[in-house]
Design brief:
Blueprint lengths: L18 H7 L1 H4 L4 H11 L6 H29 L4 H7 L2 H7 L24 H25 L3 H33 L13
Length: 198
């Protein structure tokens, strides 16, 4: 069971609506490298993780990613709240608006709805943690790209915070991969796996 604290991990207080920014930031809500996929990936991988400390790591980071999803949702909401028809039309936000009004819907910046097909849960500790390392780097690059395209400090600061957390998660998963490989090396796993080699 999770305990829910009714505040964001980092404050989001956007003063000026900006549907153009919302249309790119939404990718970290439901895009291929976004927070929804990350949270579900890690919370699903934990079931088959054979090492308790890594099961705990996957749970901790998976829950934190849910908090990041909440931050992105708050940003998109604040950036699109009370838009005029003229702002919607001039910003290019109209296609999203037609389908979702100003609701926060899991989609990529290119308009593809979220799909579990973009994440992997293999049940193999090395494969899963390697996937997680790549996922954190892809999310960091997406945050880098967002930072290249926005200039509002109210947007930049929470995005920088989220980017920094991706780096920390990458470091923790790197430590986890070293733990796994050390344990498997001690069993000569790479030389001979009795489960599949005769």
């Amino acid at each position: 069971m999770f305990n829910y604290i009714k505040k964001l991990q980092y404050p989001v207080n956007i003063k000026h609506p900006d549907p153009k920014a919302a249309a790119i930031i939404i990718s970290q809500y439901g895009g291929p490298d976004g927070e929804l996929g990350a949270s579900l990936r890690y919370l699903s991988q934990r079931y088959s993780m054979p090492y308790a400390e890594l099961k705990g790591l996957l749970t901790d980071i998976g829950v934190e990613e849910l908090g990041h999803l909440e931050m992105i949702g708050a940003m998109v909401h604040q950036l699109t709240k009370n838009l005029t028809e003229k702002e919607i039309e001039e910003s290019g936000f109209a296609p999203y608006f037609v389908d979702h009004t100003a609701g926060v819907y899991p989609t990529s910046a290119s308009g593809s709805p979220w799909s579990a097909a973009g994440m992997q849960v293999k049940g193999d500790p090395i494969a899963d943690i390697s996937e997680d390392l790549a996922a954190e780097q892809k999310a960091r690059v997406t945050y880098d790209n967002i930072l290249r395209l926005v200039d509002d400090p109210d947007i930049i600061e929470p995005i920088r915070f989220l980017r920094e957390r991706e780096i920390v998660h990458y470091q923790r998963f790197g430590e986890g991969l070293r733990l796994i490989t050390d344990r498997l090396d001690s069993k000569n796993y790479y030389i001979s796996n009795p489960a599949i080699d005769d």
